[in-house]
Amino acid sequence: MAQKIKITQIRSRIGSKKNQIASLRGLGLWKINSQSVLKNTPEIRGMIVKVNHLVKIELVE
């Protein structure tokens, strides 16, 4: 399993639920095309599952 995950926001958070917006903030994503590289942990994976329709995920080694 990769040690890091690169997350890119590809859709707007307008119209999303509060918990989805909070997950985007927790992932460090604020605008469309913003990127964040985070550790591959179960907590991060859980946040990604909530907003998987708004983000693109790439594994970084």
Integer average pLDDT? 95
Order of helices and strands: EHEHE
Low-confidence stretches: none
Q: What count of structural domains?
A: 1
In CATH, the homologous superfamily goes by the name Ribosomal protein L30/L7
Q: In CATH terms, what is the fold-level topology?
A: Ribosomal Protein L30, Chain: A
Distance between the termini: 9 Å
Q: Which CATH architecture would you pick?
A: 2-Layer Sandwich
Shape: globular
- Provide the β-strand percentage band: 25-35%
Biggest sheet descriptor? 3 strands, antiparallel
Strand order of the largest sheet: 2-1-3
> Gyration radius, to the nearest Å?
11 Å
Write up what this structure looks like.
The chain is α+β, with helices and mostly antiparallel strands. The chain has one domain (4-60): Ribosomal Protein L30, Chain: A, CATH 3.30.1390. Helices cover 30% and strands 28% of the residues. It has two helices and three strands; from the N terminus they run βαβαβ. The chain has a three-stranded antiparallel beta sheet, with no helix packed on it. The longest helix has 9 residues, at 18-26. It is globular and about 35 Å long. The model has no long low-confidence stretch (mean pLDDT 95).
